[in-house]
Write a structure and sequence with these properties.
2 copies of one chain form a homodimer. Chain A is α/β, with parallel strands linked by helices. Chain A has 13 helices and 8 strands.
Chain lengths: 335, 335
């Protein structure tokens, strides 16, 4: 199969995106236990909590305690979700006072929707208002030396508005990039994407976002644009975040790989990710993604058995069966 | 996305493969109701029952009654599974005495495994013994004017033996073809396949089975082999039958489409398909496959809403929630 990247980087979002969607409050100690386990599976990046207001998401009101309690190897990059400047203030306060061999966290994520209606319903702002606020957050975070990702929800379709124009999504991506985001995540928030759309989307994205480059060998590879800033300044990573709402999550991931995407977000145990309607699947399971990549010979450096142990432990803690397929079936056994 | 076929043909296997795996006996009247519903969704082909010995699979012991009771439009091709010559005798007796505007069925399927151990455990024969028996079945069925498919289980891996050599699978395929099969189905019986493997497998298969041709436009397209027999005699269709055991079913289907496969088997409601271990997913859900194809612009002529109504009705009859994703989430709504 031509054009696949040699290796792929996965950010595990279960401790933030997954836990946030759990109806029962998970004890802080259990969250810390799971994050510590996840950080020893070979996963290079973990999104561990969020600095939204505690009244809005009580499940993540223990952000400070989680960051103080976890024991994560320095080579694992930790990110936290920041909704606005107040959230950034809280996060920076934690980082300044943090004691220990490594920083409390290394990266921040900010987010907005590509659809006005979805953004309004989610954060009660227009896209323009969100962008203005996030530009301020990104500017300050970069000054603090934090790596920054901007995540764009409903990048492949909106449950309220239907089609979302690719040009609108890419316009938002460029705004985030210009404000300092070194990575843009494109979220298929309600699982509307299909492989043909994903292929075309990333071909456009790599062609029209300065500093974004597909994996070498992928169909869409282009020469780096000449001039303007150092390579360091110009590089921006494009990340795919798929949901499995209609069972197409891994097919979309395959299409993204073929289009040159080397960075993915997913959630262990298939936790979280806007399960709408109730009972629907949200995020693709990290185990299923890692299983597919491993079988295809794409390197992730993640120990699938260790990752499955994390999902099994989450299943015990949450007291219900999780949706990940590989968790039930086990890894492929070639004897 | 280059190389996708314009249209795809799906055989619905739920009434045989799906029902067979149900622990409770489904009343014959309910089976007939579901088959009649399925036959009005635009599905071109249905596998409706099996002529295995009633003691072996009590669930399908009503094969005669089902075929006598259904009311299926003439343009829908019906197939039955035939394990051996005794099963063929029973099936032909039904066909001879069948009254009505259309034949009782149009096609037969025969099956064996590509792995000795799996074949032995499944039908208590060596592969060579199975082939000898099936060659006799195929010869007689062709004389009766029946269209014939040979299905090869564990084509992409065996839970007992691990890797299964592609050459061994293709050798069996050629034997079945030479014995009269006009279609070869390759089954990923326990969901061990991955997209890279699927891509390579079908490239080999199209290149080395006389009369097998990938969809025009697909990467692997080759010129028809010259000489020997009429086109009618030589053509053989290659069909992919994937399971979603590790969540990769639709990703494998995408890889098969890109390799030029235009024919798939799947099961409505995600019923059946060797769910091993217990609780694991078996067949890919027809609704999920149709949803993906529809969204990608590949024609199937299947009415997704009508198909979802069948799965919803099966859910009522079986009294449990079925696994199909699109059944829970509904079709993608672009407004």
């Amino acid at each position: 199969m031509a054009g696949l990247p040699e290796r792929v980087q996965i950010r595990e979002v279960g401790p933030r995106d997954g836990f946030q969607n759990e109806p029962e409050i998970i004890p802080t100690g259990k969250k810390i236990e799971l994050i510590d386990m996840l950080s020893r599976t070979g996963l290079p990046r973990l999104e561990v909590t969020s600095f939204v207001r505690p009244e809005v998401i009580p499940q993540l009101s223990d952000a400070e305690e989680v960051l103080a309690g976890i024991d994560v190897p320095a080579e694992v990059s930790l990110s936290v979700l920041i909704p606005n400047e107040r959230g950034l203030d809280r996060a920076l306060a934690v980082r300044e006072t943090h004691a220990g061999p490594r920083p409390a966290f290394d990266e921040i994520n900010v987010f907005l929707s590509a659809s006005e209606t979805h953004n309004r319903k989610n954060v009660n702002r227009s896209i323009e208002e969100s962008l203005a606020g996030l530009e301020a957050v990104l500017g300050r975070a970069r000054e603090e030396g934090l790596r920054c990702e901007g995540v764009i929800s409903t990048s492949f379709g909106c449950p309220y508005e239907g089609r979302v124009a690719v040009e609108r999504v890419l316009h938002i991506a460029r705004r985030l990039r210009d404000a300092g985001a070194q990575e843009i995540g494109f979220g298929d928030t309600t699982g509307m994407a299909n492989p043909v759309q994903v292929d075309e989307f990333f071909a456009h994205a790599f062609a029209s976002i300065d500093g974004a480059r597909p994996a070498s060998g992928a169909g869409g590879e282009t020469e780096p644009a000449p001039g303007g800033g150092s390579a360091e300044d110009r590089e921006v990573r494009l990340t795919a975040h798929f949901h499995n709402t209609r069972g197409q999550g891994l097919a979309n991931a395959l299409a993204a790989l073929q289009a040159g995407v080397e960075s993915f977000e997913s959630s262990f145990g298939e936790l979280g990710g806007c399960p709408v309607p109730a009972g629907a699947t949200g995020n693709i399971a990290t185990e299923d993604l890692v299983s597919m990549l491993r079988e295809m010979g794409v390197q992730t450096r993640i120990d699938l058995d260790a990752l499955l142990a994390c999902a099994r432990r989450a299943q015990e803690i949450l007291g219900r069966r999780l949706g990940s397929h590989t968790l039930v079936a086990g890894p492929v056994d070639w004897r």
